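Proteins fold reproducibly. Next comes an illustrative record:
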Amino acid sequence: MPLSLHLRSAIDQARLLRSGKISARELLDLAWTQIEKHNSSLNAVIVSDIARARKAAVASDRRLKAGTPKGIFDGVPMTIKESFDWTGTPTTWGDPRFAGNIAGSDAVALTRLTDAGAIILGKTNVPLMLSDWQSFNAIYGTTNNPWDKARSPGGSSGGSAVALATGMSALEVGSDIGASIRNPAHYCGVYGHKPTYGIVPMRGQFLPGIVSPSDISVAGPMARSARDLTAMLKLLAGPDGVEARALRLNLPSASQTSLKDFRVAVMLNDPVSEVDQPVQDLIGKLAQFLAKRVKRLSMTARPQFSTREAMDIYIRLLRSATSRRLNDQDFAANRKLAEDFAAEDNSYFAQMTRANVLPHRSWLLANERRHQMRLLWDQFFADWDVLICPAAASAAFPHDQKGERHERTITVNGRQVPTTDQLFWAGYSGGFYLPSTVAPMGLTPEGLPAGIQIITKQYGDLTTLRFAELLEREYHGFVPPPGSF
């Protein structure tokens, strides 16, 4: 059955706008109707300005009627993650301390999409300090998964994924340091791309007083189609500010034109983060489909380093990067706490606390090993075009807001395991600056969506996106949640 217009891809919506089959005002009203009908139960869009959006739609319709569109997405409605600046609206990261932080300008990522004609109508929900695979905070409340409102939509770009899945928006920009684009895309059945580190400017997505980009963290596109991701990345990527005076980005095009051109490594599971069998089964089913269609496929090919070491290095660098969010008092408390842990305590909480106060020489040593492993990844991708693996350890889990995140568990193969174990699937690529795309691949027996994570070499973004486009065309694409969406 064809998708309703508000659930079609942004590229399809843009084509209909240019042909005059629908106006920007009408398309905006369709998205706004979805917000009015469903947002009270889902709580995805938490800041909006429909008057400003309607004014922009009128201007868009004038350009489209004159045959002078502003860009590829002229007239297409979009939302953006709350942590990105949008002039005149709060950027709080879900923290009441920043409730009065009103943006004086737009984030670079937002500007690059609105310069291409996209119409911003709202901001979407996040967890406190963008630090959870759920999306709830004391300012805006809890966002629910449209596939099952008792479950998490993921995080930290959880509101973004829900808005896309339900037609409240056609385009979104998320951020990702620990699967914050990939996890919600997987939980909600949409597409997300975590770019190569550093290619999309982060200006306008910082806490007040911070101007330097964080290690590992990236901004990237989210959408209902892989084609949309590709078009968005081409707009979003490229240097900004001081760097733009001299630097230019020239991402290599994908050399592959069909699935038969791809050499594919497949990873179903890993001892560092066990994967729930229904998710493994979906990846296995995809692997069977690919085995007859790709150039070469291996279920055992891996980069030549320990996955346990990869996880340890990632946690050390990740929690060192996020330590700048700590105030002086909390930093001092963490230093004392780190000293109290037994040397043999390798629990996530102990590793996180030590990393929060990591001495600079220790960081340099971890960073050196990271770069050695990054080169081992590059050697691996001399023989393989992509590696496909889980985006997370399970499909969306039930809401759980009790205690601290490191104390919570999820169910994997009938056992309770630490939620933080699945950081492995975030850091296996993200900690080493690699791009990865998440694409939906089907539903579990419980009727929940699951996505596949597609990884390739540094700056190979257009290769993972091409692979996702081919899967969308030949295997599985976006499916809306059940109900009246």
Remarks:
- The chain has a mean pLDDT of 98.
- The first strand starts at residue 45 and ends at 48.
- Residues 258 and 470 are 7 Å apart (CA to CA).
- The domain at 5-258 is CATH 3.90.1300.10 (Amidase signature (AS) enzymes).
